[in-house]
Amino acid sequence: MLRIDRRVRRTSQGRWPGLLFLAFSILLLVSLMLTSCAQTDKRTSLSQAERDASLQRIAADYARDADLATAQASLDKLGLANPTQLLVTLAEQSVNEGRPSAEIIPLARLAEALGAHSSRLIAYLAPTATAVPPSPTPAPPSPTTPPTATPLPPTATPTAIPPTIAPTASPSPTPRPHVVAPSAANLRGGPGVNYPLVGELQTGQEVNIIGRTAGSDWWQVAVEGAGQAWVAGTVVKVQGPIDAVPVAKDIPAPPATFTPAPPTATPKPAGPEFRFVSKRLWGVEENGGFLDGSSVHCGEKRQLRVLVKDAAGNPLNGVTVKVAYGNQEEDVTGSKGSGVAEFILGGGQDAFIVRDVDGHQPSSDYARGMSTDPAAIPTEILMGSGFCKNAEDCAHFVRQNGCHGHYSWDVVFQRAY
């Protein structure tokens, strides 16, 4: 009987190392799976309703505290791809739905503070611009019985001393409505891209507003030597009390519709007037991410920058670029830098030119394949931008859906004449 007990004890003791090894292997496998998920996809798990409620709360906190750094930090915690654009979209949607202004104004103010501009929201906020309150009318003094003057004995006439005049405090000047250019912005001879260029605002330049269009989407500004000078509301920040700015009455007629050159003019070269030159995928760090050994930490950006050049290779402002693939948007070069138009990518967009500087609709190549899906991006492009090192590494990166939705591109077009 004693021998049987010892055999049983030895047998159960021999099983423990195997069980411990199995448990350790399972924990290691789970840890590796969680780490892989964290590095390849940072998309938020918020539903649309939860996301919108969070944006409303952050905007309300900013309206109360005016703490932009805290608001930015709160937006970063949501893990959204482009929270600033989502603030604009949610505010415009609330306007369309007739939501209370107490919900719309905080969203619009926070978006404006973060650098986003929407002519729709500018027009909506115009009636709420700060005005100088009227000075209160002083209450009439209460009637009192005038005191009886007590005559003073005559005194010797003193030597006249010039009176000391107390300095009068200068009243605080009323702030004037003005625009600030976050980057170089075109000035035109009228409210529209079909008017000729008459000048340019430099980065950081401030000029006073003297008129506006009925929709408050273009502002007439006072620029010496530029005659009538207009700037689009989408490329500047509007500041000061704008509710008193009058609608301009002397707006010149737009220029005549483009007419083709006479037959004696030098013919344009064969092929499209605007030709696709190149496209480039931003690198990991350029897109806001970083590398940790062989691991890729994805950035948050999803931009499409389109640079348009003239035949000599110089940046060309005033050209309208359109993107189309799901979302369809237009932007005019020069609004985001010399010769540059900029967009926020969805799943990916094709880009092409729809209007030349003179307003006519030109022929244009299409720039295609600016995708935010790693499976749609060629391996050599992913390797060239640092997202993977070789074909095997890239295949694994794509299978893991690495950085899905967070890629940015540069595209270059050149006019042929």
Task: Characterize the main sheet.
Answer: 5 strands, antiparallel
Main β-sheet, spatial strand arrangement: 6-5-4-1-7
Distance between the termini: 105 Å
Task: Find the count of extended strands (DSSP E, 2+ residues).
Answer: 17
Structural class: alpha+beta
Low-confidence stretches: 1-12, 36-43, 128-135
Q: State mean pLDDT (0 to 100 scale).
A: 81
Series of H and E elements: HHHHHHEEEEEEEEEEEEEEEEHHE
Beta-strand residue percentage: 15-25%
The tally of helices reads 8
Query: How does CATH name the architecture of the domain at 274-415?
Result: Sandwich
What is the topological layout?
Layout lengths: L1 H39 L7 H18 L2 H11 L4 H14 L4 H13 L5 H7 L52 E3 L4 E4 L8 E5 L4 E7 L5 E4 L8 E3 L4 E3 L34 E8 L8 E3 L2 E3 L5 E7 L10 E6 L1 E6 L7 E5 L3 E8 L11 E5 L7 H6 L6 H9 L9 E7 L2
Parallel strand pairs: 11-17
Antiparallel strand pairs: 1-4, 1-7, 2-3, 4-5, 5-6, 8-17, 9-10, 11-14, 12-13, 12-15, 15-16
Describe the overall structure:
The chain has 417 residues and is α+β, with helices and mostly antiparallel strands. Among the domains are: 48-125, no CATH class; 178-239, SH3 type barrels, CATH 2.30.30.40; 274-415, Immunoglobulin-like, CATH 2.60.40.1120. The protein has 8 helices and 17 strands. It has helices at 2-40, 48-65, 68-78, 83-96, 101-113, 119-125, 379-384, 391-399, and strands at 178-180, 185-188, 197-201, 206-212, 218-221, 230-232, 237-239, 274-281, 290-292, 295-297, 303-309, 320-325, 327-332, 340-344, 348-355, 367-371, 409-415. It has a 5-stranded antiparallel sheet with strand order 6-5-4-1-7, with no helix packed on it. Strands 8-17-11-14 form a 4-stranded mixed sheet. Strands 13-12-15-16 form a 4-stranded antiparallel sheet, with no helix packed on it. Strand 4 and strand 5 (218-221) form a beta hairpin. Helix 2 runs antiparallel to helix 3, helix 2 crosses helix 5 (101-113) and helix 4 runs antiparallel to helix 5 (101-113).
